Amino acid sequence: MPATSAGKTYHHGDLRNALICAAVDLATEGGPERVVLREAARRVGVSPTAAYRHFDGRGELLRTVRTHARRELAAAMERAAAREPGADDPGLAAERRVTALCRGYVGFAVEQPGLYRAAFCVPRPAAADEPLSARPSAEPEIRAFTLLREALEALTRQGAARPGVRPTAAAAWSAVHGLSLLLVDGPLRRLSAQGRSVVVEATLAMVVSGAAAR
Question: How many Å from the N-terminal Cα to the C-terminal Cα in the chain?
């Protein structure tokens, strides 16, 4: 998380950090669509010209917010896993970790929909805002996926082999990501808290049962 928060006076030389904080606040409030460099500058109390000294345009600022949002998603997953009680049985412990990570993923989406949307947005450069050359040629693997993949691999090592049934990490990620989108922006957003819990737990049980035979 950036070291300062939007609205506070920034120290000399820390304008970039202050702009990131303001942009994160904007994304939290309304998703990636709300992240605009001029608005971030206004919130910090500087001119757009000053902001453009630190960011080439909206695309670069939004990519920075996206990186932050992805880190927060992974952190939420790790916190959920850390709260899960341990188990003497390695197989059960592996199942619990997968379930907790997935639950943390969905929980972040529901509790922080703006940041969740920002975590998976695709910034587009505007002709007058950012040159195409400023766009990165490659992106690092999303840590949320890495956590899920590693947990599923650990679970697979504990379960009996079931060729053709065990899901890949990509399939498991698709399940929790798709569920998250349905809960945040789809028809499942109207579910009560109890109804949402039932759907979430059923989906997580499906992911786990496909990863290992218990």
Answer: 39
Letter string b/e over residues 165-201, b meaning 16 or more CB atoms within 10 A of that residue's CB: ebbebeebbebbbebbbbbbeeebeeeeeeebeeebe
Question: Scanning the structure block, which residue is given the tokens 């939420």?
Answer: 76
pLDDT at 183 over 90: yes
Q: Do residues 25 and 96 touch, judged by C-beta distance below 8 A?
A: no
Other Cβ atoms closer than 10 A to 97: 24
Cα atoms in the 13 Å half-sphere on the side-chain side of 42? 6
Whole-model pTM over 0.70: yes
CA neighbor of 27 nearest in space, from 9, 1, 54, 56:
1
Residue recorded with tokens 């939004």: 62
